[in-house]
Amino acid sequence: MKILVGCEFSGVVRRAFEERGHEAWSCDLLEAEDNTSHHFVGDVLDVINKNEFDLIILHPPCTALAVSGNRWYGKGMPRNKERRKAQAWTQLLWQAAKSRCERVALENPVGVLNDIIGDATQYIQPWQYGHGETKKTGLWLHNLPPLTPTNEVEGREQKVWKCPPSSDRWKIRSRTYEGIAEAMTGSKVIERRMRCLEKSGLTEERLLVLKFLRQRRWRKKAGIVRMDIASHALPLS
Ligand SMILES: C[S@@+](CC[C@H](N)C(=O)[O-])C[C@H]1O[C@@H](n2cnc3c(N)ncnc32)[C@H](O)[C@@H]1O
Question: How far away, in angstroms, is 9 Cα from ligand 1 center?
Fold first, then answer.
C-alpha cells in the first residue's frame, strides 16, 4: 500500500510501515530526522491534493488544541484566536484527507478537536502498547477499525511532562510511540488488503476499479436506483 504519514518529522510511523513492506512517505514542514528520501518537506495539504494514497495517517500540531493549553488558548484567553485558527486548519486537513483517500486516521491528544470534527473514534494510552507512560490520545478513524492494545504494561509515568526544558522539548513530547506505530501497521484491514494485493498480483488502482464494477453490476441486478435530493429516481449509468 502507498501510505502518507502527515505532520511527521521523526519517521517513527513511516519506518514501521516500511518494515512491513509498504511504500510509506512522511511529510512535515521540517526535514526528516533520518534523512530518508521518502519524505516531503512542505505543506501536508499540498501533498494530499497532488498525490494518491491508500492510507493517510495525520499527526497535526496540538499545542493550541490540547486541554493542557487551556490557560493560554481557552475562551477569553490571550491566544484564543490561535486555537480557533488551529481548529479550522485541522478540520480542513481532515476533510481534504477523507475526500482524497479511502482510509484516514488522525491522532491528537485530548482537546477541543471534537467540537469541530466530532468525537474521537477511540482513546488510547502508551501503556496499552508497551510503554509504561500515560498520554491520553484520541484517534479519529475513517474506514479503519479501532486499534487493539498489543502489550499492556504496568508503568503509568507522566514522562512527557517531566522532560527538562530544552529547545527540543516539544519534539521529544510529540514523537509517536513506537509501540503505537507498530500497532497501526498490524490493523486487520491493512493486512487483509496487503494479502489481497499479493495474492492477486494486481495494483491497488486495478483492484479499486474491479470493486467499483462489481458493485455497479450488483446494484443493476438488484434494480437499485439512485435518488437525487428532489426524490427523482435516476437509473444508475
Ligand atoms: C505534534 S507534531 C507531530 C510529530 C510526530 N508525531 C512525529 O513523531 O514526528 C506536529 C508536526 O506537524 C508539523 N506541521 C505543522 N504544520 C504543518 C503543515 N502545514 N504541513 C506539514 N507539517 C506541518 C510540525 O512541524 C510538527 O512536526
Answer: 7
